[in-house]
Amino acid sequence: MEAVPRMPMIWLDLKEAGEFAFNPAVKKSAVNVPRDFEGCSTLRKYFGQLHYLQSRIPMGAEQEAAVPIAWTEIFSGKTVTHEDIKYEQACVLYNLGALHSMLGAMDKRVSEECAAGAFTYLRDHFPHSYSVDMSHQILNLNVNLMLGQAQECLLEKSMLDNRKSFLVARISAQVVDYYKEACRALENSETASLLGKIQKDWKKLVQMKIYYFAAVAHLHMGKQAEEQQKFGERVIYFQSALDKLNEAIKLAKGQPETVQEALRFTMDVIGGKYNSAKKDNDFIYHEAVPALDTLQSVKGAPLVKALPVNPTDPAVTGPDIFAKLVPMAAHEASSLYSEEKAKLLRDVMAKIEAKNEVLDQFMDSMQLDPETVDNLDMYSHIPPILMEKCAALSVRPDTIKNLVQSMQVLSGVFTDVEASLKEIRDLLEEDEAQERKLQELLGKVPGSQGSPPPPSPGLAEVSKECSKYMEVHEKASFTNTQLHKAMNLHISNLRLLSGPLDQVRAALPSPSLTEDDKQVLQNLKRILAKVQEMRDQRTSLEQQLREMIQKDDITTSLVTTDRSEMKKLFEEQLKKYDQIKVYLEQNLAAQENVLKALTDANVKYAAVRKVLAEVEHKWNTTVQTLVASYEAYDDLMKKSQEGKDFYTDLEGKAAKLLEKARAACQAAEASRQQILEK
């Protein structure tokens, strides 16, 4: 696009600190930071020094030096207290992510990757039970929101830099993928209950962005097709972009004016592209327009990442102010064990992510939504938009009568004009015939001299005006015919909408499925439920593994273990993860069989799907046609009135011309009689 409209970003509030028996000056500077990048730097330093402190002083949960630490929970505003130094670290890290999100939402459009990094580290390295705003679900949501917004910023820059259309499309598709993940989290009932009242606002904005950036992706796929001179593909991509943008506009109700302006700007771009592409293809290229699902889907290009947080990086935290308190041997051994746990988690997650990618690609290719795999419920009732039109017509009983009367009046005036013009034409033709006879007679009379007098100037003027009116009448006649056709079409639809609701429902197409078809549907839905069950179990096992790793602290054992025995101790301790790894392996192994069963079920479903798709298309077309008839009423009445005004004016002119023609013909006839008498 020539310019890049901006969408608003979601940013998070900072938590407020309460009681913590720590140096007041340090506490004040760490929790009341300025809302800028200097504030981010202060939080990072404080977080790093807390990490150094907790590795030497037993200030963790149920340890000797633990003190109460209080922070405000974001969503409820309640004060939550824990006697655990890690709680202080977690809250500071949350504020670091929140502050980066706040800065990222500003005009500079930076800092989103830093926010994602902070929330990722918080999710992976700290307990999720401290408070609701730091639960695993909320942190996952935050990570995907921040990555989505970071990718959105990259998309904005790519369009400003005029990067290649295909790359821009892939970047935009990845924005959609991140926001879909965030939307799934927002739609989770547990997450929704945790977020409270902001859940609806966030969900509405994210859903709107999903359709908006999907439209941007298909806009640039259309531009790529244009560059490759694939004019049929160009039309379908621009059509899809237009459809998705219309969905975004529907979801943008209640959004600020900046969003509406961005949508209007984008509509101008995409609408113009689509109209131009369709016109060119219809009149110049005549390429077949393929179905969208036959084209290769746009795979997202994740070009942003959560920037890692390193609590021991001296360039960020400054020098370790607790370096001389205790030996680091136990801490070093604990770090080694933490790396072993991290390696185990990476190995397991690599397998999970590989299987998830296969599963996601498979499900995307199938295009099967468990919620809408059969859409039979929609045929059992009249859609709200049609009910609204029926209700509106019920309080306007004269609608059809007015339209019919308007048509009749227009037809009457049209007929009068046509009759007047025909009579004028007949008079002129009769006069021409009489003049021809006179000329023939004069040619046969002996001794006649000279030629007949020239035609009457009055008749020549009448003939000229008659030709002009006939031309105007013929042009208007075509428009009048089209208007009557439109009226006849819409009147039948308006009669239906004005009638009993049972008749309206009966006019809407509905599928007729056999018992075998219904069995195929039930089997497909059952297997789709199995797929979801497999997903849920996998997510649950992953969560359990993460929680086990998070809680696995063997520092006490490390203090009493000889360095030479460390490797053996690590091996023994890591055996506690064997059982959950077995469960995960079984879950991953089951995927192949489940997808094979789904493939077989989908093959049987193909015929049913085609029937349902065709009926749904007819149903939507019928609904749109009926709605269009309702909405066309005012326009038809307006055009009918314009037609009446036009023909009334033309009738007056034709009537005057008829009188003029009669007078001119009479004068011409009198002249001919005088000639004959002579």
UniProtKB/TrEMBL annotation:
Q: GO CC annotations?
A: endosome
Q: Which Gene3D superfamilies match?
A: alix/aip1 in complex with the ypdl late domain, alix/aip1 like domains
**PROSITE patterns found in the cross-reference section:** BRO1
Give GO terms for biological process.
early endosome to late endosome transport; endocytic recycling; protein transport to vacuole involved in ubiquitin-dependent protein catabolic process via the multivesicular body sorting pathway
Matching entries from Pfam families are given as: ALIX_LYPXL_bnd, BRO1
Q: Give the residues annotated as coiled coil.
A: 414-444, 524-551
Per UniProt, subcellular location reads as: Cytoplasm; Endosome
**BRO1 domain spans which residues?**
27-359
Alphabetical keyword list: Coiled coil, Cytoplasm, Endosome
Coarsely, its chief localization is cytoplasm
Protein's name in the database:
PTN23 phosphatase
Q: Which organism is it from?
A: Tricholaema leucomelas
